[in-house]
């Protein structure tokens, strides 16, 4: 039994994605890492994309392989078109196809707006938004080429765009990041609308405050942690496994009728917590 109140139990469905081929971008740490491992645990072969830190990516690969599935690491910067093309075509060569894309790679370059450089703006938009567009485009080409294989899945392909609660919560001091995630919301819906007739399911997961390196300053000190918990009605900081579990189920045929939506996995952060006592 899982007795740690801070950590969710993993989805107990090892066969849910059996035989499927999954690509997770930014899978060497945080949410991407947990998701890649969870997909492997659910029976998928998994490509672990990373931008830097090969040893970390290789450790994820080792853990995925321990579940008896194939896995390898592939370095690529998702904001670079040629690298994304190579990432997906190599996967098709090595694993035969792609069934699931988790477009997860993302970063923050925070600054007050008047101090934000164009470089900070463009870096975040190019990785968080353009990177998801490029990966989705390449995956969709292969989904369309292959079509539905009923023994594998009812869909021709599944894309999960990793968004954020900041696709709807404005975030002062993070205009580049919030704008990128607002863009991801519309990327998700537009792709979903465009390709649903071809049986491609595009959805997003919007994590709230998940304990990862990206937001260390928000949970590292007791004061920061207390302030953060005020924003979370469920009163616990999220674990990467909270997102990974949702991704496994969303990628599976259990969610075959879920098309073009965002699943908020945020402990209630989007419920306007200030209004619990105010207003
Ligand atoms: C950001 C985190 C932040 C969380 C909730 C995420 O998308 O990457 O830094 O803690 O949203 O505000």
UniProtKB/TrEMBL annotation:
| InterPro entries membership | Sc_DH/Rdtase_CS, SDR, SDR_fam
The record's listing under PANTHER family reads: 3-OXOACYL-(ACYL-CARRIER-PROTEIN) REDUCTASE, 3-OXOACYL-[ACYL-CARRIER-PROTEIN] REDUCTASE FABG
Q: Of which family is this protein a member?
A: Belongs to the short-chain dehydrogenases/reductases (SDR) family.
State what protein this is by name: SDR family oxidoreductase
Where is the organism placed in the taxonomic lineage, from the top?
Bacteria, Bacillati, Actinomycetota, Actinomycetes, Kitasatosporales
